[in-house]
Amino acid sequence: MAERQPPPRLPPVVSPTVVIFGLAFAVRAVFLLQSLESPYFGAPFLDEQYYYEWAKRIAGGRLISDHAFFRAPLYAYLLGALFAVAGPNYFLPKLLQHLLGSAAAVLVFKIADRCFDRRAAWIASVLAALYPPLIFFEGELLDISLQCFFYPALILIGLKSLRDPCWRWTVLFGVAGGAAAIARPNILLLIAGWLVFQILLRERWGGWRPALLRAAAIAGLLGGWMLPCLIHNILADRSWVPISTYAGINFYLGNRSTADGYTASTPRRYEFFGDYQDSVELFARRKAEQITRQTMNGAAVQRYWIRRTLQEISAFLPNTVRLLLKKVVLFWNGYEIRNNKDLYFALQFTPALDWIHRVWNFRILAPFGMLGILLAMHRRRTAETTWLALGVAAHMVSVVIFFVCDRYRLPVAPMLIVFAAGGVGIMWRWLEEKRMRELGVAAGALAILAVLVNVPWFDMSPAVPHKDLWNVANCLKAKGRLDEAEQWYLRFLEVNPDFSDGWNNLGELYVRRKRYDRALPCFERAARLDSRASVPLNNAGYCLLKMNRAAEALTAYDAAVEVNPENRLARNGRAEALAALARYDEALIECDALLSQDPDFLPALWTKAAVLARMGKADTARDLAQRALQLASPSAAEEIRNDPALRGVLE
């Protein structure tokens, strides 16, 4: 009798986690590789530059800022820790953010599996893995990538706690919630919703006392995360603020009497010199101090703008109600409202994601997600789906109380995707069961929602048309690709000939080419277009000085200082122009005034050394020049050594 053969070994079943994570990361890897060739890569601006510069300061050991945190600090400190280990770079943070986004797709699978079924879970996870806005913003140096992970993480922890009243889920919720809060504080609304929800369903945890005890534990863990932020803010400028101070000015920008519900720009932009500063933060502080005529710390600035906004709301209450309704409509509208970048424009540089976005975007997600909420609440209302719906509502409220834009709305996407998949699953089941009446009603509701979501209810034309052309030009200029940058500037100025910054930046490009004859008219035009800007006047003075027109340069520098006495570069340029006119004593007075304010102000050290060298005071000039060289970057040090006035004293 033949010996019985063992049954063949079946291949191991690959877990959903591996499949979903692999799919999500594969798409993200393609996007990341294509983004390497984008003009934006390696040239951060606006909010990205804010975080990049902040992280570099942290990596360099500067852990305490000059003021209370304006933005929530977790992302900057994580980025700073990464820079401390691997050095400042752009690729590694984005790679890690894509890994986090791939993990979030797995969380979406688990949420949908608990709220609906396995079919919905697979649909939801694939949709989340491929959703272009999530992938795009994971590729930005912005804190939103953390929030898009924390929202599904907290939703899932809450779902687990609903089914398993073990204390570990309560502790984990508090730990994750605290981290999420110091990443972006608006998630506190979701956490507050969970605390209320937990008390309402107190019987799942054994009654009033256990439910209140768990709520207190979560609050305590939240406080533990906020305590270092509070300590920092007290040390920085004596601000008793638990996380950050930007809520006040954002509340004002989103609800003032002239607000449109989606524009975050300030009524006036202040110039800054030196390291990059957030224009909104700068406006908030300077305008508040100008009105109150007193120096204010971060907490006082925030209180000022909250009071100011509440006064405007009370004075224009009907307008505020209309504005709030408008923001709710904007939140659900299919159009992605730009903040720093126009998503539709930026995707052209990553073709794979651009093609996916043409067929899978918020215009599709919103109606399916809204239908899924309606079907779940009507046909499958459970504690789990109610908690998920509460997550959608909490995030919507946390956005519309300020203003609406693509990236602020984005964290709702994972939750809406779960509802969309759940709704599709319900309709699929009706089709299998031939329940055509219910299916027809659902299809009709979907059609109505699709129309409502995709109607352009409001004109959202940007104040500066095609500003992304200018952004690309700035990025290319920063990367040294000057020929390409010039073409983009010229394209931009064709449609925006009255935009002062456009002409100023084009002039700066010509300066880098040492084409001062072409740069000067650009700066002069920029100065005429914006009489409150001192930078174009300063730049015009620089060109005139390089063209050996020192008297005209002095006039331009004087005009720049008159517009903005805080423009230290213009004051230093004025000293250079005076020196070129052999008015050495006046030049030294200007340099000394600058150095009395900042003894390490490199341009003034350099200028004073050059003036002293021209006056024959070689020893003093050499000492100042050596000090300047110690402070200078390698490129600036090379310029100092090649300065004709200093070459002799440094040899």
**What fraction of residues sit in β-strands?**
under 5%
Q: Report the strand count.
A: 0
Q: How many DSSP H or I helices?
A: 33
Helix content: over 70%
Mean pLDDT: 93
How would you briefly describe this protein structure?
With 651 residues, the protein is an all-alpha fold. It is 72% helix and 0% strand.
List keywords for this structure.
651 residues; mainly alpha; 33 helices
Protein model, in words:
This protein is an all-alpha fold and 651 residues long. It contains 33 helices and no strands. Helix 7 (144-163) runs antiparallel to helix 8 (167-181), helix 17 (362-379) packs across helix 20 and helix 30 (602-614) runs antiparallel to helix 31 (618-631). It is elongated and about 95 Å long.
SSE topology sketch:
Elements: H1 16-35, H2 47-59, H3 74-86, H4 91-115, H5 118-130, H6 132-138, H7 144-163, H8 167-181, H9 188-200, H10 208-237, H11 246-255, H12 279-292, H13 298-315, H14 317-332, H15 343-346, H16 351-359, H17 362-379, H18 383-400, H19 406-409, H20 413-432, H21 436-454, H22 467-478, H23 482-495, H24 500-512, H25 516-529, H26 535-546, H27 550-563, H28 568-580, H29 584-597, H30 602-614, H31 618-631, H32 634-641, H33 644-650
